[in-house]
Design brief:
The complex is a heterodimer of chains A (about 130) and B (about 525). Chain A has six helices and five strands; from the N terminus they run E-H-E-H-E-H-E-H-E-H-H. By secondary structure, chain A is an alpha/beta fold. Chain A has a five-stranded parallel beta sheet with strand order 2-1-3-4-5, with helices on both faces. Chain A is globular. By secondary structure, chain B is α/β, with parallel strands linked by helices. Helix content of chain B is about 45%, strand content about 20%. Chain B is built from 13 helices and 18 strands. In chain B, helix 5 runs antiparallel to helix 6, helix 7 packs parallel to helix 8 and helix 11 crosses helix 12. The relative contact order of chain B is 0.07. Classes of the chains: A alpha/beta (about 130), B alpha/beta (about 525). Chains A and B meet through helix 1, helix 4, strand 5 and helix 5 of A and helix 5, helix 6 and helix 11 of B.
């Protein structure tokens, strides 16, 4: 049985760690990146099933990452959930237009975030990840 | 040196006066270039083409008299200094003119070349000063809002860390937690949530102040929103020992309002009411038709708290206002809730007010516009005082594929709505405001003044255009169907309003039949 692999992109190590704990407790595998550049590199290397992306990042912000992911056929199918401290009014629409599947403002409600992750994960991976 | 001369627009109908002014201007120290017109309409036309440095204005012109004259000039050219040259020494009129933005008021008989020259130069200077003050006020406001937006972003990051780790502890992800430890953690969580709400309010208030709140009105049932707001506030109220009671008139028609914003208004008012109500008290939330105005829904939030002191009454909706005598001083909040509620209500075109006696509680009331099909339909399905020949209802269903992510789908359906609005004729078709949808499927309805035969062209166009909407292909399906709306027999002697009302009733029935089942619309929808 393979678990779904989720990539967490956030420049704040505390928040990465918190999200990692939360996702692992819910039976997901996680990988991390702390800036835009590593996020792209990591996406190629790890091919995650889903990406949780902050917008305010060093070395290429979240919008740059979204754009790069969309441009590459090997990565464009990976769903991206944006989780950011940015103002929803100014960034939500822009993020969704740039290809994000969902938008959450920090601090997000964990139950809601997990539900959207479950709904957003590609079908096949979801079935194997949640045998219960 | 024409390039450096002062451009003057002289609006004066009396040729003798005009010559005199011209003479005084030529005698003055500054080089001037005078463009003289005799009628106000010519003056306004000239202002539309270019702005002079200063306007010299006579008030009694062939096509305009008195205060009306300067009002029109100021409206056309708010940034150009205006000096009135009047035949009468009317102090009251002069003061009125200055209050409305005129720079100076000179009496023709007493003008010398030097006084006219000086009056013009000072007028230009004062106007420039005024403009730069206005500019820096705007810059300051902009700066303040940017600052607030930045601060709330920076505050959210550490807030998120606290929120996340407290939840990790509470959920037992880091090991067993004892009962009393759990209580302490819950206290932290409650405080963090309050902090988060304050950060949100700060941003919202600065947005309201700079006019950056955009409404997305839909057809919504007041009862649904009241119940949703009460459900969200239940925990807070219970904790304080305050009961929440709801009374909704189930026959209340649908409203035309932004559901997220209405929720925000209700939550702000309920939160405020709970805050000022002692344990054992109750907060009552009501919704019904407005007695005074049938176009509005009426809401009220009543508490059994301490009431509002007379001195506080005038200030209660002000930004940052806090009642200094409020009983519960432990958690005051920022004083933004009522300000935000007031701004959101007035953005909807509603009214908000309160009634209160010290010691006897307070009732906050507000109104929001009802969804009136009659009013929306009238200009669309009538022409030259009679009904149009045919009316059809076009139904467009946007159905997402099972794996369409909801965020992206929400955005796609919004784009479809915008595209649909461009597919119709504004004067004879009407895209009905979308219904507040429970699920992801969206039903959009268009009332079109045409017959079934011609509607085919329209539906083909809609299908084609919606298919091209960015992100639509692969994400979902579009289904378009048409049905005829029954019209009264021709030759009826009913007044037009009554005919429109009947058709609106028929369309309302059709709408309810189409979407009522799926979206649990109450039978209360008003035609």
């Amino acid at each position: 049985m393979t678990k779904s692999k989720i990539m967490i992109v956030d420049d704040d190590p505390d928040l990465r760690q918190a999200l990692r704990l939360r996702l692992r407790a819910n039976k997901y595998d996680t990988v991390n990146a702390g800036d835009g550049y590593s996020a792209i590199a990591m996406a190629y290397k790890e091919r995650p099933d889903l990406i949780i992306l902050d917008l305010g990042l060093p070395a290429g912000d979240g919008f740059v990452v979204l754009e790069r992911l969309q441009k590459d056929d090997r990565l464009s199918a990976i769903p991206v959930i944006v989780l950011t401290a940015s103002d929803a009014q100014s960034s939500e629409r822009r993020a969704l237009q740039a290809g994000a599947s969902a938008f959450f403002q920090k601090p997000a409600d964990n139950a809601e975030l997990l539900e959207v992750i479950r709904a957003t994960l590609p079908k096949v991976a979801k079935e194997t990840a949640l045998p219960s | 040196m024409k390039g450096q001369s002062t451009q003057v627009l002289l609006i004066e109908d009396n040729p003798g006066d005009a010559d005199l002014v011209r003479l005084r201007l030529v005698e003055g120290k500054s080089a001037v270039d005078v463009n003289c017109v005799h009628r106000l309409s010519d003056g306004l036309a000239s202002l539309r083409e270019r702005s002079p440095a200063v306007i010299l204005l006579d008030l009694n012109l062939p096509d305009s008299q008195g205060a009306e004259t300067f009002r029109k000039v100021l409206e056309q050219a708010p940034d150009v200094p205006v000096v009135i040259l009047s035949g009468q020494d009317d102090e009251a009129l002069a003061i009125k003119a200055l209050h409305q933005g005129v720079q100076d008021y000179l009496v023709k008989g007493s003008i010398s070349s030097s006084s006219l020259d000086r009056a013009m130069r000072y007028a230009v200077e004062r106007q420039a000063l005024l403009r730069s003050l206005e500019m820096s006020r705007k810059q300051q406001l902009e700066f303040k809002n940017q600052f607030l937006s930045h601060v709330s972003h920076e505050l959210r990051t550490p807030l998120t860390a606290i929120h996340q780790y407290v939840n990790i502890l509470l959920d037992g992800l880091a090991g067993e937690v004892q009962a009393d430890q759990r209580d302490h953690l819950k206290t932290i969580l409650r405080s963090v949530n309050q902090l988060g709400a304050m950060v949100r309010d700060l941003l919202e208030a600065s947005r309201a102040e700079s006019g950056k709140i955009l409404l997305a009105p839909r057809c919504v049932a007041a009862a649904d929103l009241i119940h949703a707001a009460v459900a969200m506030m239940q925990a807070t109220a219970r904790e304080k020992g305050v009961g929440l009671e709801v009374g909704v008139d189930t026959s209340l028609p649908l409203m035309h309002a932004d559901p997220d914003r209405v929720l925000e208004i209700l939550i702000n008012l309920i939160e405020n009411a709970v805050k000022f109500t002692p344990a054992g008290g109750a907060v009552t939330i009501q919704g019904c038709a407005a007695a005074a105005d049938t176009d509005f829904a009426y809401f009220s939030v009543t508490d059994t708290g301490c009431g509002i002191a007379a001195a506080a009454k005038a200030l209660i909706f002000d930004r940052l206002y806090q009642d200094p005598n409020a009983v519960d001083s432990s958690r005051k909040g920022l004083g933004l809730g009522l300000f935000i509620a007031k701004e959101l209500v007035s953005l909807h075109g509603g009214r908000i007010w309160f009634a209160s006696e010290p010691g006897e509680g307070t009732t906050f009331s507000f109104t929001l516009p009802l969804y009136s099909l009659d009013k929306l339909l009238f200009p669309v399905i009538t022409r030259d005082g009679r009904l149009r020949d045919g009316v059809v209802l076009v139904k467009v269903v946007l159905r997402p594929n099972s794996n369409a992510p909801r965020g992206r789908w929400k955005d796609i359906s919004q784009r479809c709505l915008e595209t649909l609005q461009r597919c119709v004729y504004l004067d004879k078709d009407l895209v009905l405001p979308p219904m507040a949808a429970a699920g992801l499927e969206e039903t959009l309805l268009v009332v079109a003044s045409t017959d079934l035969e011609c509607a085919g062209i329209m539906t083909a166009r809609i299908r084609e255009q919606l298919g091209k909407v960015q992100g639509m292909s692969g994400a979902g399906e579009v289904e378009v169907s048409v049905s005829a709306v029954p019209l009264p027999e021709s030759g009826t002697d009913q007044p037009l309003e009554a005919q429109v009302h009947n058709i609106a009733g028929a369309i309302g029935e059709m709408v309810r039949a189409e979407v009522g089942e799926a979206q649990r619309l109450s039978a209360s929808a008003k035609a």
